[in-house]
Design goal:
alpha/beta; 12-stranded parallel beta sheet; two-stranded parallel ribbon
Length: 392
């Protein structure tokens, strides 16, 4: 192979070679390419260091060796774009605590980081981690802590960091990452206008997923509303059972109405908000939805023209009858050729539902918590609509 190939051709060759790493790990192949000649070195190095993953099974010596390499060779640290750091699910392991410190130091010299994935970091040096993340300019952040008894951030702290990332497109946090901020006296979250790139700060955010952590309070939703997150296409969160959250939450939905395609709300206990069917009628692009019947009626759901998948939690026994009636009417309209805006189109492929008013599987002799009769009727009408029913 000629040594004077253009860098673009070399990079494509190395990319294809990585795809055939069934017997030899791709990293080993790239290491061998580094030693071929001077013209190959920068291309192979950029591909080798662009994505780094340190999994829990790797010894601390690996993290220490990488830290030394990146610290001594700043040009290599600047090549790192995607970084995955995973620790064991053991908060008391002294070696893991030391490795966590190494991880923080690895992040620091990587000035061009775009995506960070942190797994099981929850119980370690939180202040150092927050300092490093706040100084970054991320495109994507994913944090998940399985068994940690301590949270990494308060909700407002996470939003404050996001306000400093002008390029951010996706933020996903789950499993014991966030702590509630409602009991903390704090100033409203705002953007740092003096920071370079502020004019576009937050406008690239497409996915905001705050799962299985602290409930978002009314103040948190006001913060989201005050930040320039107007282009969100997917929003997942657990909302606090508080009537005060209604106004900022509805305002956010209105702001995202022309773009949002996915809305996942963990609201099984929420009853203070009341139904907001009028707002849901504006969500013409919505394809995936997880919601509680206290927030939106079955008829409003069936009016969503682009809906493909839904997880619908039933909160009251009477909502079961409303759900069956709405689907029955829709199936009759379909049979009779009366296709209206309130009739689900061929887009609705899967409908997951269940009765949570007395807990799931309230009837041990039924395949559905909805009861035998409701389940049978829903099965019939969904077959007419061409929709798969999953009742639990």
């Amino acid at each position: 192979m000629p040594r004077d190939l253009p860098p673009e051709i070399l990079d494509r060759i190395f990319e294809l070679k990585e795809g055939f790493g069934d017997t030899i790990p791709p990293m080993i192949e790239l290491l061998s390419f580094l030693r071929v000649c001077r013209s190959w070195y920068p291309v192979a190095a950029r591909r080798l260091y662009s994505t780094i993953e340190l999994r829990e099974w790797k010894a601390r010596q690996v993290a220490q060796g990488l830290l030394v390499t990146l610290t001594k060779n700043r040009h290599l640290a600047e090549m790192v774009r995607n970084l995955t750091l995973e620790l064991k699910k053991d908060d008391d392991d002294e070696d893991e605590k030391a490795k966590a410190s190494d991880y923080i130091q690895i992040i620091d010299p990587c000035t061009n980081l775009a995506c960070i994935t942190l797994l099981n970091y929850g119980a370690y040096d939180r202040s150092a981690l927050k300092q490093v993340l706040a100084a970054a300019s991320l495109i994507s952040l994913h944090i998940k802590c399985e068994d940690s008894a301590r949270n990494l951030f308060r909700t407002d702290e996470l939003l404050r960091m996001m306000a400093h990332w002008p390029r951010v497109e996706s933020v996903s946090v789950s499993k014991n990452v966030m702590a509630p901020s409602k009991d903390v006296r704090r100033a409203p979250v705002s953007c740092d206008k003096s920071r370079q790139g502020f004019s576009d700060s937050g406008r690239n955010l497409r996915k905001l997923r705050l799962l299985e952590g602290a409930q978002l309070s009314a103040d948190d939703m006001r913060d989201v509303l005050s930040l320039p997150f107007s282009h969100v296409e997917e929003f997942s969160a657990r909302l606090e059972d508080n009537a005060e959250i209604r106004i900022p939450f509805v305002a956010c939905l209105r702001m995202w109405s022309s773009r949002i395609t996915g809305l996942m709300l963990d609201m099984r206990l929420v009853s203070s908000l009341g139904r907001i069917d009028d707002v849901f009628s504006m969500l013409h692009c919505l394809e995936k939805l997880a919601v509680h019947s206290t927030l939106v009626s079955p008829r409003a759901i069936l009016a969503l023209p682009a809906l493909v998948w839904i997880n619908y939690y039933i909160s009251k026994p009477e909502d079961v009858d409303e759900l069956v009636a709405a689907f029955t009417m829709a199936s009759l309209d379909r049979k009779n050729g009366r296709i209206k805006h309130s009739v689900p189109g061929p887009t609705l492929k899967k409908f997951n539902t269940g009765d949570w008013s007395k807990g799931p599987f309230r009837d041990p002799f039924s395949i559905s918590g909805l009861g035998r009769e409701a389940n049978s009727r829903l099965t019939d009408v969904c077959s007419v609509l061409g929709t798969q029913l999953v009742a639990y």
